[in-house]
C-alpha cells in the first residue's frame, strides 16, 4: 500500500447543504492519511463542524495521520464563536490571511 496523503480542499460554504457531501468525501478517504485545506472556507455551519469533529476523532482512533491547515480567518472565527477549540478538528497552524 502506498503511503500517500490524500488532500481534500474544502468548499467556500460549509453550510447545511454541504454536510452530507462533506461526510461522503471524508469517508471515501477512510483508512488513508488526509490533509484538509480550508483556505477557501468563508461560511461554516454546525453540521459541517460536527462532520469534521467526528471524522477527526475517527482518524485519531484509527491512528492515521490527519492534517488540517490553511483554514480561513472566517472558519477559525466560527470555531471561536461556538466555543470549539481548533484542536477538535486537528487545526494546529495559524489561519490563512
Summarize the structure.
With 97 residues, this protein is of the alpha/beta class.
Summarize the structure in words.
With 97 residues, the chain is an alpha/beta fold. The chain has 3 helices and 5 strands; from the N terminus they run ββαββαβα. The chain has a 3-stranded parallel β-sheet. The chain has a two-stranded parallel ribbon with strand order 2-4. Helix 1 (16-27) runs parallel beside helix 2 (46-62). The longest helix is centred in the middle third of the chain and has 17 residues, at 46-62. The radius of gyration is 12 Å and the shape is globular. The relative contact order is 0.20.
* Overall residue-averaged pLDDT value: 89
Instruction: Bin the strand percentage.
Output: 15-25%
Envelope shape: globular
Per DSSP E runs of 2 or more residues, the count of β-strands stands at 5
- SSE string, helices as H and strands as E: EEHEEHEH
Helix fraction, binned, reads: 25-40%
Distance between the termini: 36 Å
Please render the helix and strand layout as text.
Blueprint: E1 5-9, E2 13-14, H1 16-27, E3 33-37, E4 43-44, H2 46-62, E5 66-69, H3 73-81
Parallel strand pairs: 1-3, 2-4, 3-5
What descriptors fit this protein?
two-stranded parallel ribbon, 3-stranded parallel beta sheet, alpha/beta, 97 residues
Amino acid at each position: 500500500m502506498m503511503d500517500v496523503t490524500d488532500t481534500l480542499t474544502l468548499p467556500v460554504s460549509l453550510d447545511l447543504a454541504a454536510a452530507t457531501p462533506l461526510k461522503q468525501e471524508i469517508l471515501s478517504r477512510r483508512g488513508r492519511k488526509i490533509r484538509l485545506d480550508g483556505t477557501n472556507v468563508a461560511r461554516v455551519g454546525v453540521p459541517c463542524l460536527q462532520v469534521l469533529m467526528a471524522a477527526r476523532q475517527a482518524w485519531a482512533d484509527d491512528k492515521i495521520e490527519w492534517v488540517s491547515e490553511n483554514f480561513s480567518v472566517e472558519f477559525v472565527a466560527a470555531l471561536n464563536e461556538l466555543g470549539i477549540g481548533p484542536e477538535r478538528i486537528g487545526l494546529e497552524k495559524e489561519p490563512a490571511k
